[in-house]
Amino acid sequence: MEWVETTGRSVQDAKDKALDELGVDEADAEFEVVAEAQTGLFGRLRSEARVRARVRPTAPRAKEERRNRDRRRRANEGTAAAATAPANGAGGTAGTADANGGRSRGSGRGAAASPVTADETGSSDTRPDDGATTAAPRGTIRTARAPRATEGAAAEGTSESLDSDADVDSGDPDRPAPRNRNRNRNRTRSSVGPTGAETGLDSDDDDLSGKGPEVEVDMARQGEVAVDFLTQLTAELGLEAQVSLTQPDDDTLEIQLAGPNLGILIGPKGATLVAIQNLTRTVVFNETHGSNGHIYVDVGGYRQKRTEALTRFATQVAEQVKANGNRTALEPMSAVDRKVVHDTISAIEGVQTISEGEEPRRRVVVLPG
Amino acid sequence: MSDVEGSLDGGVDDWGDDEVDGGRAKSVLTFLATRLVDDPSAVRVETSENRQGIKLALHVAPDDMGKVIGRRGRVAQSIRSVVRAAGARDGIDVYVDIVD
After folding, report:
1. Closest among A165, A146, A162 to A154, alpha carbons compared
2. Where are the beta strands (DSSP E) in chain A?
3. B78/A contact by beta carbon, under 8 A
C-alpha cells in the first residue's frame, strides 16, 4: 500500500492534504505523524507538520507486524498457550507445550530461557517438532538453530547480537499470531518482569547461546581477553579507566569502565560505546574461538541510565498514542535502544510497535491497536 | 606490539611532514587493527591530510581484510567510530580508509 507524505501548518492541516491526495475519507485512511509543527520565535512557523498517510488496507493489518519482542515473555506465552500451569518454569513447561503439539515457538524460547539445559531441551524438542514444521516454520527453524546449526555462528553471534533486534524485526511472515496472544503476553509479563528486564537488551540472541557446559569453561578466558583489550584500548586513548569485570550469570559478562573523562567512550547516543562493545566481542571471539556468552560494556552506568530514560520516554509516547490514536514515528535509534522501546511498549495495552526503515535510520513506530 | 607498529610507521610518515600527525587516532587504529587480524606484522597505517581532515589509510594482509571489515562492514564501522572518538580527543577530524 502506498504511503503519501504531506506537510502542513498543523498536523490536521497535513492530514487534510493527505486525504485530498488519497481521495478517501478520514475513516479509510491511516496516519502516521512524522513530525509535529514547530513554532519558532514570535509564533513564526519553524518547521511544518509532516504526516504520512495511506489508504487503510481492506484486510486487517498483517499480524506479523505485531511481534513479540521479549524472548522470556514469549517463553511464558508458550506455556500459557498450552494451557498448563501458571507461567513459571519457562524451560520445563515449554517442553510440555511442545509435546502437546503446541507451537514449537514455545520450545525455542524455552531453550532460550534456560541456557544451561538448552542443549537437551532444544534438540529433543526439535525432533518431535519436525512433524509440525509446516505448521510453525519459524519456531522450528529457530529451535533447530539453537543447539546445532549455529555452533560456529553462535560465537559470531556475539557480534551480531546488536543486530538481532533487526533480525526479529525483519520478520516471520508465517508466524501464526492469534489475537489473544497479546493478552497472554501482558498477563504473564509481571511474573517474568525482572528476568525479562535483565536480559532485555540483547535477549534476542539467547537462543544462540544455548550451548550448555562450554559456556562456563570459556567465560573466565573471555573475561580476561575482554578486560585486557579494554584496558589497552583506554590506555591508547590516553584515558585513565578502571576496568572491572562482573559475571551476573553463567553466560553473561559485564565490563564496567570507570574514571574521569570517559564521556568520549560513550559518544553521541552511545554510538561509540556500542562500537567499543562490538569490537570487544569481535576480539574476544577471535582470540578465544568460542564466545557463547553475552558481553556488555558499560561506561559509568550509562547503559542503565539510558535504558531508564528511554523507558520513561517510550511510556510517555505510548500514552500519547493511546490518547490521540495517531501513529507516531520515533526518531531513528540504535537496535539496542529500539529493543528497549519495543519491550516497554509491548507491555502496555492498547498500543503496539513496529520498526520501519533501514539501518542506520531504522525507527520505531508506535501505533494504536 | 601495536606501539611498535605505530611508531615505526608513524616515524616514516611523520618526519618529513610535521602537519600530518594521526596522534592518538593513529595509535588507536593501529592497536585495533593489530588486535583484530591474524597477521599483525602486516598492519600499516599511513597518514595524510586533505580537505576532509586527516586520512588514516589502513593496510592489512589481504587475508585479513575480512577481519577488519566484518560482516556487513560492522567491524569497520565500529573501528571508524572509535578512531573518530580518539581523533576528537585530540581535536582533529580523522577518517579511516581501509585500503586493499
Report:
1. A146
2. 4-8, 29-35, 38-39, 45-47, 49-55, 242-249, 252-258, 294-299, 327-329, 351-356, 363-368
3. yes
pTM: 0.52
Residue ranges and CATH numbers for the domains of chain B are 18-99 (3.30.300.20)
Cell of A320: 500519547
Task: For B46, list phi and psi in degrees, rounded to 5.
Answer: -105, 140
Helix (H, G, I), strand (E, B) or coil at A45: strand
Within 13 Å of residue A350, how many CA atoms lie on the same side as its CB? 11
A229 touches chain B (CB under 8 A): yes
**Which residue, A10, A16, A44, is CA-closest to A31?**
A16
ipTM of model? 0.80
- Least confident interval from A45-54, A63-72, A136-145, A211-220: A136-145
The residue among A44, A42, A45 whose CA lies nearest residue A7 is A45
DSSP string over A226-294: HHHHHHHHHHHTT---EEEEEEEETTEEEEEEESTTTHHHH-GGGHHHHHHHHHHHHHHHHHHS---SE
Average pLDDT over residues A76-86: 44
Preferred mutation among A229, A282, A299 to probe B, highest tally of B CBs within 10 A: A282
